[in-house]
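Worked Example 4.2. Consider the chain below.
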Amino acid sequence: MADNSIGTPEQLRDPNYTPPIGTAIPLGIQHVLAMFVSNVTPAIIICGAAGIGFGSDQGALGFPDMTYMIQMSILFAGLATLIQTIGLGPVGAKLPIVQGTSFAFIPIMIPAVAGLGTAGLGGLMVGVMLGGVFHFFLGFFIGKIRFALPPLVTGLIVLMIGLALVKVGIQYSAGGVPLMGTENFGTLEKWFPALVVVLVTLGIKFFTRGFTAVAAVLLGIIAGYIVAYFMGQVSFSNLPRAGWFNVPTPFHWGFEINWAIIIGMCFMAVVSAIETVGDVSGITKGGAGREATDKEIAGATFADGLGTAVSGVFGALPNTSFSQNVGLIAMTGVMSRHVVTIGGIFLIACGLIPKVAAVINTVPINVLGGGVIVMFGMVAASGISMLSDVDWNRRNMVIFAVSLSVGLGLQLEPSALQHLPDTLKILLTSGLLPAAGIAVLLNLMLPEELASEAAPGISGGMAGHRYDADTGKE
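Applying the procedure from the previous section yields the following structure tokens:
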């Protein structure tokens, strides 16, 4: 609910209004805290997949490469946020949009870097950069491709993202990939802090209100961190190695062309662009009570692409608008883009200080796993929520069934494609791309069914059944 003491209702709905600085600063930092864990988690996951994260030999060195990627994720989330709020000509929506590292790209990135160490990161970052350039140009015609991505397709894509990631939360909570196959994997000692995170997160989410509820995952991880500390699972030995100031270096891990990553990034850019359209619409509806303009949607898409391209140059992962901050604006009623600008500046300051990333590295992997279980489960649940808008006739059920079966099946049994070239193998075993590609093609190619052909004959459930209140029959 809006606080009228910091501005009139008209002012609070105006993106160009600046609340009193004493209120604007905490509101801006609140936006950062709401997205902080989600922003750095992808970097930790990708470094773990590459073999330079938790449990790797880099632990003795203070995880320098993972620290750098976390640092860049914070820094360029802040920079991308400023591009959105302040704008560069037509680039940027000039709305209170918080940018951050996207979960959506993780299923594409994991198989591309798995076990390669820093050698795989050069190709990844070039893919991020070129995918960002492609994303930028989507801004010129984003409105014209929305027809190809109805809720059936977008809901399936988001569901597949969640399904591709839920395994990560379980692996982390049980001790992480390095411990798999050992007696230490899955012990109660590993699981207990992770369960504390889950339980505290649920308790805060459902029994508190306001910002506390919005930051439930962050507070849950803090609770799990405290428990892990008293269990002797937290080490600060690497903190002294981290410096107080560092600047990003271009192509930190080299320059390499990896077509599998480039193709995957370009495809996911379309998905990310559609997500941003939804976020911009949610912000203008929730904060200002109006529809987003074409200029705002195009500007937001331009900023998404530019932020991602610059991130790739300096070693960060793809950026997108963060949906949790959309809800925060609706909750506070403060539409000021300058408030979010303050949050972006705070992120940039943290990103230039390696000590911040080093502190994040002290969070045990099982504690992070508890938060990841909640976050990635919510991604899958969001996909299911989007699918609730679908008319489940026979046509749509077949599209969903075939897409899900092929995508999830290839993800669960990647060896089925062992004879394909490496580029195709990486793209298809993600599960996400084949599922999305099949859904888009079938949705465009298959004819629409008549209402009378809605699927009453499908066995096993209530699909297609309609209840007539007048006759009392289906």
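Strands lie at 99-101, 319-321. The longest strand covers residues 99-101. Compare this with Example 4.1 before moving on.
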